[in-house]
Specification:
By secondary structure, the chain is of the alpha/beta class. The protein is built from 20 helices and eight strands.
């Protein structure tokens, strides 16, 4: 009877076999973990996926609760057969950001389930050596002259959205502003035809959201399990690939090239798959970081009217100094004529507000993987293949660097005070060391 049921239900047989293999594998891994534990790094005991579960659900709490529990600067835990070392302190921070064998892309490959990966649908994306090709191409599309040429279109996008919001009522920043940032990021990273096609842009956003919701703790711990989350991720990735591939081919057939990112990559001789991979990565990274940061900046300005007034005065000074003050043009068109150099060099107040917002809300966990030889960090050995986790709060919320660290105070960065300069890696909002974000200083 049992054999008849299994033979009639191949999906059930697959699930039962998978769970059986998983149980045996987990037991073996835990045994290996106990034998290979480093004496100088405190190791969390217990069933690996149960111990690691909070790492995927409440990462900040998991890391700091275990630092408090162990009283150590490092602790090790296992995510199935992967070994992860959480670290803190000045010495470890210096190594985390500077050690040449610690790779960023490999660090996130396993634990960033919401990121679109063409390999999930058996399609090869960009063939990169580390992140060097990606950074070069990213800097190319973010060239000052190219962004300056897009300013009128970007400000038109902002104006259109704001007119839709109206002048009264309530506004959910984390939906409305997020959608705006998504559209603007897509303009920078893809092509005009896509961003002006409302249905296509909506489909693009929905599939990114489907990727986000598919990144459940179970799916991250058991990425090979043929469950609903895995199927949802594959479906969303395939939809994104098909959608973007269509626009890549549309631009490839165009008789007149444009300055859009897709056209620039076509001109470099990139394949369609490589272009799709690049666009997927840029939109994902831009929206997940920029979208959240813009929302929090607006919230902090709303809660701090004195700083809101200072930023408004700074923008007014730009208008007075770089536009025709008696022009009948609407505000968004006048803003679009301000040169990029002015936006970059004449907005110190806004820059400090952004830095302070990033410092407070930027308490996430950065990941790396040791792809080089075994290394020593603060007296402890990190083996080749191990992952490292660094909580940004270790520096951004450190009272020895930033007194009253949870208080909003953009004057921290003023000349003569410069709290962010107290430590070589005292501010990591834009990355630090060999993993600084390209083009951001």
């Amino acid at each position: 009877m049992a054999s008849a049921i299994v033979s009639a239900s191949p999906s059930l047989a697959t699930i039962l076999a998978t769970l059986g293999v998983a149980t045996v594998t987990i037991a073996a891994i835990q045994s290996l973990g106990r034998r290979s534990a480093s004496e100088s790094i405190y190791e969390l005991r217990g069933t690996s996926f149960l111990v690691a579960w909070p790492f995927f659900t409440k990462r900040y709490d998991f890391i700091w609760a275990n630092f408090k529990k162990t009283g150590a600067k490092m602790f090790r835990f296992h995510v199935l057969y992967h070994s992860v070392v959480a670290l803190s302190g000045n010495v470890a921070r210096k190594s985390f950001f500077n050690e040449p064998g610690l790779e960023l892309r490999d660090g996130y490959a396993i634990f960033m389930g919401a990121a679109p990966r063409l390999s999930d649908i058996n399609i090869e994306g960009l063939n990169r050596k580390g992140v060097s090709v990606f950074v070069r191409q990213l800097l190319n599309i973010l060239r000052k002259e190219r962004v300056a040429g897009l300013l009128p279109v970007l400000f038109n996008d902002v104006q259109a959205r704001m007119e839709g919001w109206g002048k009264e009522g309530t506004l959910n920043l984390f939906t409305e502003v997020y959608d705006l940032v998504f559209q603007m990021t897509a303009r920078l990273a893809s092509c005009r035809e896509l961003t002006e096609d409302k249905e296509a842009l909506s489909q693009l956003a929905q599939n990114y959201w489907d990727l986000e919701t598919s990144a459940t703790p179970f799916a991250l711990l058991f990425p090979w399990f043929p469950g609903p989350a895995k199927r949802a991720k594959q479906r969303a990735t395939q939809n994104l690939y098909d959608l973007l591939s269509g626009f890549v081919e549309l631009r490839r057939k165009a008789t007149v090239p444009s300055s859009d990112a897709i056209d620039m990559l076509i001109a470099e001789g990139e394949t369609g798959d490589a272009i799709v991979g690049f666009v997927l990565d840029v939109i994902f990274a831009g929206v997940i970081n920029t979208g959240m940061n813009v929302c929090w900046n607006l919230l902090y300005l709303g809660m701090n009217p004195e700083w809101k007034a200072k930023v408004a005065a700074e923008v007014q000074a730009l208008l007075d100094n770089h536009t025709d003050t008696i022009s009948s043009q609407p505000l968004h068109q006048r803003l679009a004529t301000i040169p990029m150099s002015a936006w970059e060099d004449e907005m110190p107040v806004l820059e400090s507000v952004i830095r302070e917002t990033l410092r407070i809300v930027g308490s996430g966990t950065l990941l790396r993987r040791n792809m080089g030889n075994d290394i020593e960090i603060d007296g402890s050995t990190i083996s080749r293949g191990e992952f490292l986790a660094f909580s940004v709060a270790d520096v951004h919320h450190n009272p020895d660097i930033y007194p009253e660290p949870l208080s909003f105070d953009p004057t921290r960065y003023d000349e003569g005070r410069a709290e962010d300069k107290k430590d070589p890696h005292g501010y990591v909002g834009w990355g630090s060391g060999k993993s600084s974000f390209g083009g951001i200083t």
